[in-house]
Amino acid sequence: MGVQHQQASIAQEEMPHRPSQTKGLNQTQSVINSLFSGALSGAVAKTAVAPLDRTKIIFQVSSARFSAKEAYKLIYRTYLKDGFFSLWRGNSATMVRVIPYASIQFCAHEQYKRLLGTHYGFQEKVLPPFPRLVAGALAGTTAAMLTYPLDMVRARMAVTPKEMYSNIVHVFMRISREEGLKTLYRGFAPSILGVMSYAGLSFFTYETLKKVHAEHSGRLQPYSYERFVFGACAGLIGQSSSYPLDVVRRRMQTAGVTGHTYSTILGTIKEIVAEEGVIRGLYKGLSMNWVKGPIAVGISFTTFDLTQILLRKLHQMRHTDQEHR
């Protein structure tokens, strides 16, 4: 009974439309909590898989054949040549991008769920399937549109030596001077198409699994490891669906340093398929993504949920303390 009571208590803390919740946690505070939780979840998740992410990008933008053995060799050679922390090269640019990206994405998702729930007459936690999918797609699109140049910079830093770009500001200045400001948005179209599929399916899968879990287990909230598994499944499905567009985006982003002239989505796809084939080209590095993707997304969703619960409990404790004074 004690465990069930505790789980019910946590569940109540997560329902933003409860009258008591509205009094204790207003809309502004809810947005702030979502922004902070999203930022933390993105930073923790991306830092955890940064070496694998950098390796994946290097293979994505080259014509070299991918295999787990070759990926290991690349990581090991990088470690021997440049040291252990070189495996995280470009992670500072990743953090500059992923913190605002994840912050905006998670916060936007909460707001889109609330708006769609109001529109359809449902509470946001139990949205029907299609609005659940739309909320995720809109959240990813919103975040991508606002942070895209940072993703471009991160991709350039990941595939170039330290001598070419010394820091994030240097990347922006050199690209603007040598290639023009519009280069910062090269690959934007495939990025938006990909993120709509990726974010839509990721959020949809995670929310659906939590809903199905609650219906079949009788527990209103999953344990932390269950959240991680749900997030891992969401990452696997979301990233697999959008992976070819991710490859196209990376090729277009790094065209200025790889010697290719990728300019359009269809043109890039045709060139990749002609030179490397469909599977070895458009799906290059996907097996590595099946390792790092689920881990990163699982960590991200779990961190967001647990941070949200912690912040709401702290806010409730402060509110209760003020009432007793």
From TrEMBL:
Coiled coil start-end: none
Membrane topology: Multi-pass membrane protein
Top-level taxon of origin: Eukaryota
Disordered: region residues: 1-24
Places the protein is found: Mitochondrion inner membrane
Keyword tags: Membrane, Mitochondrion, Mitochondrion inner membrane, Repeat, Transmembrane, Transmembrane helix, Transport
TM annotation in the entry: none
Reaction(s) catalysed (UniProt annotation): ADP(out) + CoA(in) = ADP(in) + CoA(out); AMP(in) + ADP(out) = AMP(out) + ADP(in); ADP(in) + ATP(out) = ADP(out) + ATP(in); dADP(in) + ADP(out) = dADP(out) + ADP(in)
Solcar repeat residue numbers: 29-115, 127-212, 222-310
An example Gene Ontology biological process: transmembrane transport
GO CC, alphabetical: mitochondrial inner membrane
Polar residues compositional bias, start-end: 1-10
PANTHER family found in the cross-reference section: SOLUTE CARRIER FAMILY 25 (PTHR24089)
Name of the molecule in the record: Mitochondrial coenzyme A transporter SLC25A42
